């Protein structure tokens, strides 16, 4: 199993299957793919066809093609944009945390939390320079992560990434979802430690 496949399986263990909650800003979702944000995703064709059949949405889980579309979507839209293969060589746990965060909050936020945590933990810029916290991954972020991991623990970095993630959840003030979001902060960490 590749690091991507492992991270994907972990995140899908937290994501729901199908939802059309009117309070959800993403609108209709399938395995975390929000129709309002990704209206051109090819899987919507299968979902729309399935809506008239008994057993919907459970019958979607039996469709191997839609599952492949979901996996391909997440790899292209999230894992690759996070430089998941490169980050996972340094630390699978960091790559998996970033992936799960990106799926729930967006890729720039996942990268931003890593950058914020790295800048906070650089011992007053003695380990590596402060990063430009722009939510865009590049060689400087990878270099800082490499330097950090030579001297400090993955768990400390994960803790601060989760603190920043949790602060954003709190700022959204959507109490309906706050308990589920809290699970994202704890379940993913528990699975990897």
Layout of SSEs?
Layout lengths: L2 H10 L5 E2 L9 E2 L2 E2 L8 H8 L13 H16 L4 H7 L1 H14 L1 H14 L18 H13 L2 H19 L5 H15 L1
Helix pairs in contact: 1-5, 4-5, 5-6, 5-8, 5-9, 6-8, 8-9
Describe the protein's architecture and organization:
- The chain is mainly α and 193 residues long.
- Helix content is 60%, strand content 3%.
- A three-stranded antiparallel beta sheet has the order 1-2-3, with no helix packed on it.
- A hairpin with a 2-residue loop joins β2 and β3 (33-34).
- α1 (3-12) crosses α5 (92-105), α4 runs antiparallel to α5 and α5 (92-105) runs parallel beside α8.
- It is elongated, with a radius of gyration of 18 Å.
- Residues 188-193 have low confidence and may be disordered.
Rg from alpha-carbon coordinates: 18 Å
Assign a percent range to the helix content: 55-70%
Outline = elongated
Succession of helices and strands: HEEEHHHHHHHH
Largest sheet: 3 strands, antiparallel
Average residue-wise pLDDT = 89
Total number of helical segments?
9
Q: How is the largest sheet built, in terms of strand order?
A: 1-2-3
Q: What portion of the residues fall into strands of 2 or more residues?
A: under 5%
Low-confidence stretches: 188-193
| SSE-based structural type | mainly alpha
């Amino acid at each position: 199993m590749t690091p991507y496949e492992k991270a994907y399986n972990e995140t899908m263990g937290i994501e729901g299957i199908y939802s059309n909650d009117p309070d959800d800003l993403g609108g209709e979702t399938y395995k975390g793919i929000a129709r309002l944000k990704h209206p051109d995703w090819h899987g919507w064709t299968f979902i729309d066809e399935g809506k008239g059949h008994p057993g919907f949405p459970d019958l979607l889980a039996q469709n191997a093609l839609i599952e492949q579309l979901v996996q391909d979507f997440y790899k292209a839209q999230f894992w690759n944009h996070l430089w998941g293969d490169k980050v996972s060589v340094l630390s699978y746990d960091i790559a998996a945390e970033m992936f799960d965060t990106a799926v729930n909050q967006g890729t720039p936020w996942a990268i931003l939390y890593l950058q914020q945590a790295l800048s906070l933990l650089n011992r007053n810029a003695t380990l590596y320079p402060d990063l430009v916290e722009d939510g865009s991954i590049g060689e400087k972020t990878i270099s800082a992560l490499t330097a950090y991991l030579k001297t400090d623990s993955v768990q400390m970095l994960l803790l601060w990434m989760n603190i920043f993630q949790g602060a954003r959840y709190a700022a959204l003030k959507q109490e309906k979802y706050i308990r589920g979001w809290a699970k994202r902060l704890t379940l993913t960490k528990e699975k990897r430690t």
